[in-house]
Design brief:
Elements (H helix, E strand, L loop, with lengths): L6 H22 L3 E5 L3 E6 L3 H6 L3 E16 L5 E9 L6 E6 L3 E4 L5 E14 L18 E14 L2 E10 L4 E6 L9 E12 L4 E15 L4 E17 L3 H16 L1 H21 L9 H7 L10 H6 L5 H20 L8
Parallel strand pairs: 2-13
Antiparallel strand pairs: 1-3, 2-3, 3-11, 4-10, 4-12, 5-11, 6-9, 7-8, 9-10, 12-13
Helix pairs in contact: 3-7
Length: about 350
């Protein structure tokens, strides 16, 4: 029987088997992380007296926000990093300081390694000193031993691992926090992020974009790669503590996103890879205006007359039309918050 005729079938079956094994291994090792973001951010006026005397047209606000992360699938051992970004698309928040700062974690206790080196040399001669050697000198009973030991004891600074990297973006109008796995803390759970921002003295409210991304190792039958494990983004209203009107407008921005969660989630899933890439590159599609909004939605909203022909044909709005409507509602709510921010970017 000619076995060469069956060779293509055997190779094809083997290829299908390897592909199936690769997909099974990949599916089994997928890590999925979800984030929970705040609906609004309450800000406190913490302007120091000396700052107010020197810059009467400015003030300093403190914003605290809590973000929770939860691993719903996979293992935390595969997590590469979590990245959190808070940006001001209108460039109205000038970041003065932030917490947590960049943190290094020592791999050993006390940040120092104690090292003891020792060397030893020994000389010995005897009739039975080496059993592998035949004694040539009959009656010889020479037995000598000498031992010399040297030791030294010193301390060496232990290497440290970067577990939190933080800094500013957009010429200090945004801030990022990159968290990596640590022996002393868990990436899961709630984390509080704090920032101090310089704003106009008449500042009562504004809005910012909070973006979160998780990356993890994605294992397959053939290799291991780094892939997106979770992404979340929200436009969050900010208001000065005690200002009821500002809080009302901030709540309005949250309600729009809550009501249209399905539309926004679908668009975020569509743009997730591009968003994560932009976050890690610390760049946006447009340095000014609604840059992160364009990254999320892809295009600017249309005017009222742009979809008139489509409305005549379709009884219900299409997915594209609904997306434009939601975007326009959000921009209107953000414009109302803009009016409370002192307008001029600092």
């Amino acid at each position: 029987m000619d076995t060469t005729a069956f060779l293509p079938r055997i190779l094809a079956a083997a290829s299908l088997f390897l592909v199936a094994m690769s997909e099974m291994a990949s599916a089994a090792d997928v890590t999925h992380v979800i984030f929970d973001l705040p609906d609004t951010i309450e800000c406190q006026d913490v302007t120091p007296e000396r700052f107010a005397a020197k810059y009467p047209s400015l003030k300093v606000i403190e914003a605290k926000l809590r973000i929770s992360a939860r691993i719903v699938d996979g293992s935390d051992a595969d997590i590469v990093d979590f990245l959190y970004m808070i940006t001001s698309p209108g460039l109205r928040l000038k970041i003065e300081d932030y917490l947590p700062n960049t943190t290094l974690e020592s791999t050993v206790e006390g940040d120092q390694i104690e090292i003891a080196d020792s060397s030893e040399s020994t000389k010995a001669t005897a009739e039975d000193a080496h059993i592998n050697y035949k004694v040539l000198a009959l009656g010889g009973t020479k037995n000598q031993g000498s031992k010399k030991t040297q030791s030294s004891h010193y301390k060496q600074i232990a290497s440290k691992a970067l577990v939190v990297a933080s800094g500013t973006t957009d010429r200090e109008h945004g801030v990022y926090f990159k968290l990596r796995p640590s022996k002393g803390a868990s990436l899961e759970g709630a984390k509080t992020f704090t920032l101090l921002a310089i704003v106009p003295a008449e500042w009562r409210g504004d809005w910012c974009v909070v973006s979160c991304a998780a990356r993890a190792k994605k294992k397959s039958f053939f290799s291991t790669a780094i892939d997106t494990a979770g992404v979340e983004q929200a436009h969050v209203g900010m208001y000065l503590s005690g200002d009821r009107e500002a809080k009302f407008r901030a709540d309005g921005l949250f309600e729009i996103q809550q009501t249209n969660q399905r539309v926004l989630s679908a668009q975020l899933a569509k743009q997730s890879n591009g968003l994560v890439t932009a976050m890690h590159a610390a760049t946006t599609t447009d340095r000014f205006g609604h840059s992160w909004l364009q990254c999320l939605f892809g295009v600017k909203p249309t005017t009222d007359g742009d979809n008139q022909d489509n409305d005549d044909v379709q009884d219900e709005p299409s997915v594209e039309q609904r997306r434009f409507e939601v975007q326009k509602q959000m921009m209107d709510a953000e414009d109302r918050l803009d009016r409370l921010s002192g307008s001029t970017p600092y």
